[in-house]
Amino acid sequence: MSELVKLFCQKCGRENYHTYKNKKQNPKNLELKKYCPFEGAKEA
User: Fold this and answer.
1) Fewer beta carbons within 10 Å, N or C terminal of the chain?
2) From CA 35, how far away is CA 32, in angstroms rounded?
3) What is the CA angle 33-37-26, rounded to 5?
4) Can you name the residues that pair with 35 across neighbouring β-strands?
């Protein structure tokens, strides 16, 4: 049972990416390091 989740930059708060998360295997919050084109750096 995967669910589509939105990934937001922690500094600027903009929605930059979408990904899928399996709620049964990973019930906690998802935190990934992705490139933020607005900040110009990798953020979690």
Assistant:
1) N
2) 10
3) 25
4) 42
Identity of the residue numbered 19? T
Instruction: Indicate the residue type of 13.
Output: G
What local confidence, expressed as pLDDT, does residue 2 receive? Answer: 85
Give residue limits of the domains in the chain: 2-43
Class of domain 2-43: mainly beta
Nearby residues of 24 by Cβ (< 8 Å), 6 or more positions away: 1
Q: What is the pLDDT of residues 1-44, one digit of tens each?
A: 788 988 888 888 888 888 898 888 877 888 888 888 887 777 65
